[in-house]
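Section handout 9: paired folding examples.
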Amino acid sequence: MAGESASEEAPAGAARSGRLSHFRQAFAMSGTMLTALIALASGGVALLFQLSPSLTPDPRTHLGAAASVFAVDDGVTLGSFLERRRAIVSEDEYANEKQAYIRQASAAAGGGDGSTVLTLPGEDVFVNATIQGFKSRSVAMLASMYDADRRTRVRELSDVPVFQQHVEAPSDQSVVEFWLSAPPVSVKRYFVRVQVYHRGDGALLGIADSKPIVAR
């Protein structure tokens, strides 16, 4: 009887040992497979961020903006500026921009034909802007003209909204082009100042001045 009992326990012990070994192997395989799946998923996410930068999380390690006014074409009428844009925008957008200026001029003059606004001389201004750390947030750019000799703002051309954008990537760089009316005849030399703001709280992110320009 004792011999039979011992012989029965031996196969049972061997079976338990076999099951434990099977579980260990299965666990090891599962761990290896899980590691491979995580690596594969991480690689896929990295590839997705390369193909679609707008989906990249914003680490917000660098916050701010840099701007530089790198070119100003003076003596450009509003009509000429819009014609330049006509080459790069749709006909509908061109017509909408043109009508918006005409309506504003008509309203400011108390009615009547506002198309004379298209003959106003001004400046075609180009700004290089870089925004960092403001993904999924909005920024705005304001422009002002200064009397270069008196270092004072031209009242009629102060804090003019020229650009706004909803930033789609952690770092965004673009060239902003806008038109600004010419200064009054009393201003002999002037410069253009641009200021970049975060639209959420109005924080000033960047500021830049053009070189002084001699009025025509």
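Moving on to protein 2 of 2.
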Amino acid sequence: MSRLRRIGLLLALVLVGLVAWEPSRVALQTAIMLPNLLGAPIRPLDLFSAPPLRSAVAYSSTAGQPELAELWLPAGASHERPAGAMLLVFGVNNVGRNHPAIVRVAEGLARSGVAVLVPDSRSMLEGRLRADDLDKVIAAFQLLAARPEVDAARVGMVGFSVGGSLALIAAADPRIASRVAWVNAFGAYGDAESYLASVAAHAYLGPSGEIVAWQPTALAREVFLRLLLDTVADSSDRALLQQRYGKEIASDARVSSDGALRRKLGSEGGRAVYDLITAGTLPEARRAIASLPARTRAFIRAISPVEHLDGLRTRVYLMHEIADHHVPFVESRGLATAIRERGHLVTHTEFRLFDHVQPDRLDVIAAAPELWKLLWHVDQLMLETL
């Protein structure tokens, strides 16, 4: 055998070995899938994979009306050949499971061999966060894990934005804690109190304890206002606050105080919410939160992942954009510290690549180091699932 033929044979054997070795095979699958996840114009995965099966399923109900989820099954998944699965929990958006970015991610995962369930939530579609949203996430997980085409031992959760916070809380809930294979939170807040204070004061507490000026997005401010107004029991106070600040809070300027309005508010809860909406500094915002009614403070604790971490029984992955103007990146840093102390943190990756949880306009060459970090992070999730 000639020397060139021996070299060719050796290279062929190495290639076969790499493809057969699961970590390298999954890394290759992940690399091929990444353009689909990022919405790139060229998507090689579409050339090498069969279209998944897509259907709408009911998974929960609100006020007697069914909540729907989109189920994506890989071609070939069956009771005999069950697939690993991911529950995708998204945050506030007014399109829901049919948002183009959500469809793109779900289809890319399903084409790569992952069963995917994307639940809608009426409250999230309305730009609100309610206590029963946690129950909906748990119900969606239970439905996905019970599907005959799904391997119940390989079901993880990927949460985006507020959905990441809910996914962490759900993963710690005793109803499913022992069944969640892993959870990944992307752009999540860890402490709802510190997050609300940051949105109110347009600032956050930096890594060294310094106060850092920060401009929250219009969406973050609007959700902040809705969440607070929903906690005001007095309907007259709620209407006055909505009328005064409903439009102003969506502007980039800081909201103005209005002493006359505060004097009109008839409830302590309404005045405390007013004080938080108009807080000019982080300490003022913290004091306003401390003055909220006990029921409101209990709700804030209930939607804070840091209050539930002792219930975790699974592996946790965290992702966050450093320049995030929806949720300060320090929220994930605080989560990472607390979860690491409990022995559950696998990876915490920070990026300069996204507009919150969606890809920013990409210059592939300039973004190469960040894309490599993304590939490495997503590859770990795929290794958990495939």
